[in-house]
Input
Amino acid sequence: MTIACAHARSRPPRVLFPQSSSFRGQERATREKAIGWKCSQWEGLLLECAVPPCRDPFRPGSPRRPRGGSAMSSIGTGYDLSASTFSPDGRVFQVEYAMKAVENSSTAIGIRCKDGVVFGVEKLVLSKLYEEGSNKRLFNVDRHVGMAVAGLLADARSLADIAREEASNFRSNFGYNIPLKHLADRVAMYVHAYTLYSAVRPFGCSFMLGSYSVNDGAQLYMIDPSGVSYGYWGCAIGKARQAAKTEIEKLQMKEMTCRDVVKEVAKIIYIVHDEVKDKAFELELSWVGELTKGRHEIVPKDVREEAEKYAKESLKEEDESDDDNM
Output
């Protein structure tokens, strides 16, 4: 009892005021009004952030929101907030947006021939102040593997580092060069992982991998932002990919050598380049094959200049023949 009394004396006395029923009613009304305001604020946030087909948690018994609908699915409203969300018609808008970034980029071409692989890139020069050769879109992944990219250059550099790490780890573990198919599958799985989680975004680039070895011969693969990987004889990515593919289909790639293909790649790049919409560009060329003893290298300057001269003369002859026909 003594301890209880001492504890009671240590606390300040409570002063109780009589409360009328009207005062308690006003207090209850004020509390309900505040709670209602908070609920309305949370309701607005949920309507903005939540996946559309769900019940309102603050209104039991409320009707479901309509599923799908042409207006909502066509523009991606509510379904393009995350790469892990499917639209009602089975589309992943974040991946489609990443592919759109590739379509707005400069064109890149890869052609596989009987003795190697040749890459060509239309690198747009956005400013006259740029140093020649800067912002390259052709990379060395390994001694025998080259890479050509289209899309966001920063994303492409990140994936080039991932590919280099995969190739280096494979050589450290097994003692020989990584097969291109295995490398393409490994990098494609990494790209695909960035389409599965809401905390990350897909890579805004597509890229081609090419290699040559005595056992496997020439190989060419392309990986897109969804993580899909395919082997090709000829491939084009970027804004003029359709026109470039049409030109590639005219070639007899299985009967051509790398020196022949270099000229054709330069010609295709000059054909698909839009002089009206696009600014000046630099032509980047690289190859890997018997000619380079299985190493991926930048095409020598004299060979590149010869290929550009051939491309310009071919275009001039085609223009003259068109004028004669008219």
Notes: Strands lie at 108-113, 116-124, 138-142, 145-151, 205-213, 217-223, 229-231, 234-237, 281-289, 297-298. The CA atoms of residues 22 and 28 lie 10 Å apart. The longest strand covers residues 116-124. The mean pLDDT is 82.
